[in-house]
Amino acid sequence: MTDLSTIPSAAMQALPGMPRGEPTSMVDTLGRPLHDLRISVTDRCNLRCTYCMPREVFDRNHVFLPRAELLSFEEIARLAGSFVALGVHKIRLTGGEPLLRRNLEQLVATLAGLHTPSGKPVEITLTTNGVLLSRQAQALKDAGLARVSVSLDGLTDEIFSRMSDSAVPVSTVLDGIAAAQRAGFAPVKVNMVVKRGVNDHEIIPMAEHFRNSGVVLRFIEYMDVGNTNGWRMDEVVTAKEILEQLAARYPICQVDPNYIGEVAERWCYADGGGEIGVIASITQAFCQTCTRARLSTDGKLYTCLFAGNGMDLRAPLRGGATDQELTALIAERWQRRTDRYSELRQAATQPLTSATPGKKIEMSYIGG
Ligand code: SAM
Ligand code: SF4
Ligand code: SF4
């Protein structure tokens, strides 16, 4: 097991051009520091979005993790402390649907009490489908949640139901967004995954709905995550196409990123109607500035969204490892990190988009 003192001090500095972090930031093999941690608090969900948890796979017979396999809040907090010691200053709670995890605000309160080595509070954020948000928004805000992103892929019940494969009405999610705004989250971000032929005609109605509302709407290119969504390149509506649609309707101008490595490209309405964003994970890979680690519901560390294997942190945690030993394990793994899946996929999909549109890309070609 690596001792923290063996991490070379040169590796504990952010490289030029990378987001400036804590002085203790250590870097991976491509010079990327560890700044963000996404924690999945449950593998369950109350929706069945076709691009994420298709019902054919996540049906009644699907076996979700038994309770004993989930990290407890105490375990999550201990691991989070180790990540923070290594440079993490933003933690995003996600899932599955994180609001299904009972008493989530208690976890938020604990995590919001973490401080970086230089004494800054860690920023805690949440991504939710919004279905249960209206009754939890205030408690989450009071617990110290800094920001919330809500996923919503359409404004009509028909399209929302096609995307989420559920009978939940859109108004439930809109109520959740409104409750988050009332609780003082500003701005609330709304994420819309765009799938060609399913909800791409909702781009302008969504923009129109959220213009002048204080909500930042962000369009996300449909990604090939997992092995179950039957992803095809020809179903991806590219950020370029999305921006062309928006620009044909509204004068828009590009806005500087908030920080180097921000995944969304920022735009605003020239008439002051607010901000919009595009997340071009397929066509403009941002691996070079990817500073995110992911902790699965059962305590595995993944250093890429597309990684096949995670490193088990739960076993050492439950086996009595000290905080320093856990920190050293995480550091050692991060320093070996080579992931740049989207970059490699982009190189592979480029010829297909232009030369043979609609042809199904071979996952084996891009390494699954
Ligand atoms: N259930 C929560 C939600 O939907 O916001 C949190 C978990 S969900 C996996 C996190 C985000 O991933 C959502 O914004 C969702 O739209 C996005 N997502 C899931 N599958 C995706 C895919 N295949 N392509 C692009 N985005 C995807
Ligand atoms: Fe559930 Fe979120 Fe996945 Fe939709 S995107 S199935 S809401 S986890
Ligand atoms: Fe980061 Fe992996 Fe996504 Fe690249 S593909 S941006 S390394 S999570």
TrEMBL record:
Broad class of enzyme this protein falls into: lyase
UniProt-annotated binding residues for [4Fe-4S] cluster 2: C287, C290, C304
Listed GO MF terms: 4 iron, 4 sulfur cluster binding; cyclic pyranopterin monophosphate synthase activity; GTP 3',8'-cyclase activity; GTP binding; metal ion binding; S-adenosyl-L-methionine binding
Keywords: 4Fe-4S, GTP-binding, Iron, Iron-sulfur, Lyase, Metal-binding, Molybdenum cofactor biosynthesis, Nucleotide-binding, S-adenosyl-L-methionine
Positions of the UniProt region annotated as Disordered: 1-26
Enzyme Commission designation: 4.1.99.22
Catalytically driven reaction(s): GTP + AH2 + S-adenosyl-L-methionine = (8S)-3',8-cyclo-7,8-dihydroguanosine 5'-triphosphate + 5'-deoxyadenosine + L-methionine + A + H(+)
Gene3D superfamilies noted in UniProt: Aldolase class I
Cofactor: [4Fe-4S] cluster
InterPro entries in the cross-refs: Aldolase_TIM, Elp3/MiaA/NifB-like_rSAM, MoaA, MoaA-like, MoaA_NifB_PqqE_Fe-S-bd_CS, MoaA_twitch, MoCo_biosynth_MoaA/MoaC, rSAM
Pathway: Cofactor biosynthesis; molybdopterin biosynthesis
PROSITE patterns named among the record's database cross-references: MOAA_NIFB_PQQE, RADICAL_SAM
Subunit structure: Monomer and homodimer.
Protein name: GTP 3',8-cyclase
Name of the gene this protein is made from: moaA
